[in-house]
Specification:
alpha/beta; 2 domains; nine-stranded mixed β-sheet; 18 helices; 15% strand; globular; Carbohydrate ABC transporter substrate-binding protein (CUT1 family); SBP; signal; Bact_solute-bd_prot1
Length: 431
C-alpha cells in the first residue's frame, strides 16, 4: 500500500467535541515557536477514520493546520524504524502500540515526557484514565503516551448450548473445564472450547489465564517467571481446554480470525477473545450464532478473574519534534472526554473510566458485554505479553509451552525450558 498523506483543511462544522484545552489556543500561535503545520502519523483504524472527519473542527478552533500520514501496521513500523532512528523531526504526533514497541521507543528516547502536560489541565482529567492502560504508557515513572483504544479479554459463549445442557455461565476455571467437557460429549461435532493456538498469537489470550492463576511473565524482581507452579497450571489448563475439549484435529497455528470463524459458524460453545472483536460474533451477516451469543468475564482462577486490560494503541509526541506544544494540543483534543465518548459509541473501546460509567458510553454494546468489560477494567492487568524490547522473540519463547500443552505434551518441562530461554533474553536486554 502506498504512503497516504491526507491534507485536511478547515471545514466549518460544529465544535461540540472540542477539548477544553483548545479555548486557550490562539489562532496561528504555532505552539511556542513551533510550526503552524502539525504532522500527525496514524494507523489504519476505525479510530483514525473518526478523528480524520473531526480534524477540521480542531483546525478551525486552534488555527493549526494538520497533515495526517496514514499507514497499515507494517508500514507504520517501517516508517518509525527509519525516521525515529534517524532522529527526524518530520513526525510530531505518533500513534503507536504501547505493548509492542512502547518500551523500545521510550528507552531509545524517541518519546517526549508528557508527565507535566497530562497533569496541567484538570478539566481534561488524567485521573479519569484506567490504571492498566496508564501503566502501559508510562516508562520509568514518566508518562510517554495517552491510551486511546483498549482491549479486555472476555468469555464468548453459546446461550443455547448452555441452556440445553442445564448449565450456568462458568464463573471459575473449573466450571469452564467441566462445562466444555459436558457440551462436547453431548453435542457431536461441536467443540466445548476454542481459542487461539498459534505460538505467538495465543500468548495474549493465554495471559488472562496466567494472571487468574496468580502468575505473570516477569516477577517483581524482573526475573522470568513462566515456570512457577501458577504459570504451569495456567499452561496446563489452557492446553487441556483445547486438547481435550477443542475442535477435532485442531491446528496449532490459529490466530483470532480462524478461532472466531469456528465459533461464529457454530463449532464451539466457549471462546476466549478480545472484546474489541465482538461484532464478528453478533453480526448476522457473519455469524450463524449471532442471536444466541453471550458474554461474561474471564472465569476466575485461584487468584480471581484477572483479564488483561490493555491499550492497543496510544498517542505520543516525538521527542525530536520542534512542535511539541501544538502536538499536545492535538492529543488533548483527540482524547477529551467528549471525543472519547463519541468514538466509543462507534464501537472503539476507550480508556477513560467516565465513558464506561456513562450509560451513553455503553449504549451501543450488548448489556452483558458491557458488564463483563466493567469487571475486566476494574480487575484487569495492564499487559497481555511480556513487557520487553524484543517482543516478537519473547512471544515465541513463552508461547512454546502453550503449543506443547495443546498437543498433549509435557507442558511443565516446556515451561522450564521457556523460562530459561526467556531469562537469557532478559539478561541480554539488561546488559
Amino acid at each position: 500500500m502506498k504512503r497516504s498523506v491526507i491534507r485536511i483543511t478547515g471545514i466549518a462544522t460544529a465544535a461540540l467535541l472540542l477539548g477544553s484545552g483548545l479555548a486557550a489556543c490562539s489562532s496561528g500561535d504555532g505552539g511556542g515557536g513551533g510550526s503552524e503545520t502539525l504532522r500527525v502519523t496514524l494507523v489504519n483504524h476505525v479510530w483514525t477514520d473518526i478523528i480524520k472527519e473531526k480534524i477540521p473542527e480542531f483546525e478551525k478552533e486552534s488555527g493549526i493546520k494538520v497533515e495526517v500520514a496514514q499507514f497499515g501496521e507494517d508500514q507504520l513500523s517501517d516508517q518509525y524504524n527509519v525516521k525515529l532512528n534517524a532522529g527526524s523531526d518530520e513526525i510530531d504526533v505518533m500513534m503507536y502500540r504501547p505493548l509492542q514497541e512502547g518500551k523500545l521507543f521510550a528507552k531509545n528516547g524517541y518519546m517526549a515526557d508528557l508527565s507535566d502536560r497530562v497533569s496541567e489541565n484538570a478539566d481534561w482529567d488524567w485521573a479519569d484514565y484506567q490504571e492498566g492502560p496508564v501503566n502501559s504508557t508510562t516508562y520509568d515513572g514518566n508518562v510517554v503516551g495517552v491510551p486511546i483504544i483498549t482491549e479486555q479479554e472476555v468469555l464468548y459463549y453459546r446461550k443455547d448450548l448452555l441452556e440445553a445442557a442445564g448449565l450456568e455461565v462458568p464463573k471459575t476455571m473449573d466450571d469452564l473445564l467441566a462445562a466444555a467437557e459436558q457440551i462436547k460429549n453431548e453435542n457431536p461435532g461441536v467443540a466445548g472450547f476454542v481459542a487461539r493456538t498459534g505460538k505467538s498469537a495465543a500468548v495474549t489470550q493465554f495471559s488472562s489465564f496466567l494472571f487468574s492463576y496468580g502468575g505473570d511473565f516477569i516477577d517483581k524482581d524482573g526475573k522470568a517467571s513462566v515456570n512457577t507452579p501458577e504459570a504451569k497450571e495456567a499452561y496446563a489448563t489452557y492446553g487441556k481446554l483445547i486438547h481435550d475439549f477443542g475442535p477435532d484435529n485442531v491446528s496449532t497455528d490459529m490466530s483470532w480470525s480462524e478461532a472466531m470463524a469456528i465459533f461464529t459458524q457454530g463449532g464451539a460453545a466457549f471462546y476466549t477473545e478480545a472484546d474489541s472483536l465482538y461484532k464478528n460474533a453478533t453480526d448476522p451477516a457473519n455469524s450463524k450464532v449471532s442471536d444466541t451469543v453471550g458474554f461474561a468475564p474471564i472465569p476466575a482462577g485461584p487468584d480471581g478473574s484477572k483479564a488483561y486490560n490493555v491499550p492497543s494503541w496510544a498517542l505520543g509526541v516525538n521527542e525530536a519534534s520542534g512542535n511539541q506544544d501544538n502536538a499536545w494540543k492535538f492529543i488533548e483534543w483527540a482524547t477529551s472526554q467528549d471525543m472519547t465518548l463519541e468514538i466509543q459509541k462507534a464501537g472503539v473501546p476507550g480508556a477513560r473510566t467516565s465513558v464506561w460509567d456513562d450509560p451513553e458510553g455503553i449504549s451501543t454494546y450488548p448489556a452483558d458485554l458491557a458488564e463483563a468489560i466493567a469487571i475486566s477494567t476494574k480487575n484487569g492487568i495492564g499487559h497481555d505479553r511480556p513487557l520487553v524490547i524484543k517482543v516478537p522473540e519473547a512471544r515465541e519463547i513463552v508461547g512454546e509451552p502453550i503449543v506443547v500443552a495443546i498437543t498433549g505434551g509435557d507442558s511443565d518441562a516446556a515451561a522450564d525450558a521457556a523460562n530459561k530461554a526467556f531469562q537469557a533474553l532478559l539478561d541480554d536486554e539488561n546488559k
